[in-house]
Amino acid sequence: MDTSIKDRTAVAGIAQTRFAKSLEGSEKRLACEVIVAACEDAGIDPSEVDGLCSYTMENTAEVDIAKNIGADNITYFSQIAYGGGGGCATLGQAAMAVATGQARVAVAWRSRKRGSGGRPWASANVGLPTPLQWSRPFGLLRPADEIGVLTRRYMHEYGATRDHLANVALACRRHANMNPNAMMHEKKLTREDYMAARWISEPLCLFDNCLETDGALAAVIVSAERARDCRQPPVYIHSFGQGLPSQHHTMVNYWCEDPLRGPSWGCSEQLWRHSDFTPADVDVAQIYDAFTTLIPLSLEGYGFCGKGEGASFTEGGAIELGGRLPVNTSGGGLSEAYVHGFNLITEGVRQMRGTSTAQVDGAETCLVTSGEGVPTSAVLLRKG
Amino acid sequence: MMGDALTTDEGFLLPVRDEESEPFWEGTRAGELRIQGCGSCGRLRFPPRPMCPWCRSTVSSWKIMSGRGTVWSFVIPHPPLLPAYGELAPYNVVVVALEDDPSIRLVGNLVADSEAPINSVDPASIEIGQAVRVAFQPLSDEFTLPRWIRE
Ligand SMILES: [Zn+2]
Hints:
With 384 residues, chain A is an alpha/beta fold. Chain A contains twelve helices and eleven strands. Chain A has one domain (9-117, 211-383): 3-Layer(aba) Sandwich (Peroxisomal Thiolase, Chain A, domain 1), CATH 3.40.47.10. A nine-stranded mixed beta sheet of chain A has the order 3-2-4-7-1-8-11-10-9, with helices on both faces. Chain A has a two-stranded antiparallel ribbon with strand order 5-6. In chain A, helix 1 packs across helix 2 and helix 8 packs across helix 9 (294-301). Chain B has two domains: 16-64, no CATH class; 66-151, CATH 2.40.50. Chain B has helices at residues 22-29, 83-86; strands spanning 34-38, 60-64, 68-77, 93-98, 105-108, 131-138, 144-150. The A-B interface holds A 119, 122, 124-131, 133-142, 144-145, 148-150, 152-153, 156, 198-204, 247, 249, 252, 254-255, 257 and B 1, 6-7, 11-16, 18, 20-21, 46-49, 53, 72-78, 80-82, 85, 88, 90-91, 93, 95, 103-109, 118, 123, 128, 139, 145.
């Protein structure tokens, strides 16, 4: 018996709020509005929602979503941990629930007011359990510092340069410049701007870091059969993987045999094992980009190039529209919005519908990945 | 949790002494760099935890390290930072691979001498691969941090 979830479910509806430094309304209200809008996009009444999947860091509980949107009876709910690593898993676990009959209309979502909220690392008023007691007292305080350590080592081992990181920042920005919903839609970025930017944590500068955003997004997942009768063309969830590799530590992943072989490597094995496609078949990718470095590391982990070749993969416009593998075609976390990668999911769906503002001609498959450097997840979407 | 204070009076973050980390912090207070080893198969592991992932023994045997290592990587943080750290920025944070077992890597600071601040070394002079040795600086009555000085 084939128990794989391959193509058995589809994304039938998506929605998002505006992305801004500051939005009116609570995270709860934005979450409910965007879920109802995603149901509307699919042509499904919100009372039918019976599955809810979100990140553990989501502040709006299932009970609140259910009673606001008027859901009749939620039969499946789950949350996925490890920050931005959980994004694609909200979609994947919703797909598993629908494929196994535990839910019929599942919603995955993210609502966050980060642009107008505080910086998560900025409180000295929290205890430092392991592993943070081994890094924070020394002044390794922020995600940028933690990923900066891996970045410096990556440059040292493989000859990656700031020019390679700039390739990533510029590709995302150019795609954002084509996307009226992107926070950086009107802001051009040049290589000179990048090189002259202030440091955040050397070797990472301002433009290696993601944006700070208020925003909410949602996706509706139903069976492939039902999706074919919905308002929008179906976007199949072809395969799904999660990865928590051997001896991994979230963010400060310095204590495994090879810290530059991150969770995407294990997630990738699972993803491709259940796929009819190989990396060479992928037309477009949305790759988690809290920091520029995560893109070359993920390109390697998901098999688009060999280990240590992710940086040179970005040369010659390869990850820009028209290149070998256009990446983050809405601008990504670096230039559209940083909402823990859920905007990568909605952009992946738009690419498969043919409605992206940086549409890849004839795209039929889109890889979407979640945070590298933390236990992670990924989905391969297929055009219906 | 044994220590109540989360920061020093100056605002530097303190570690949390728990059942697993206690022998490490006891070691630094005694001027020794102690790393958890397996009481059964002998392999070192870090951060400390109850079970050996290679043989599943829950018996630990803490080993004293030579205190020598090499710089595996480093960053130079710039503001915005917590105020106590921001005042010293740009400073360095290094990750040191231990000579006794290079797969054990400790986060710390490269300093000019054991009492010097975390910005006492010129960032431009730091390179991956540089040989370093451990030094100790009491941070509070309870905690002594390991720090690193170039050989
Ligand atoms: Zn053992």
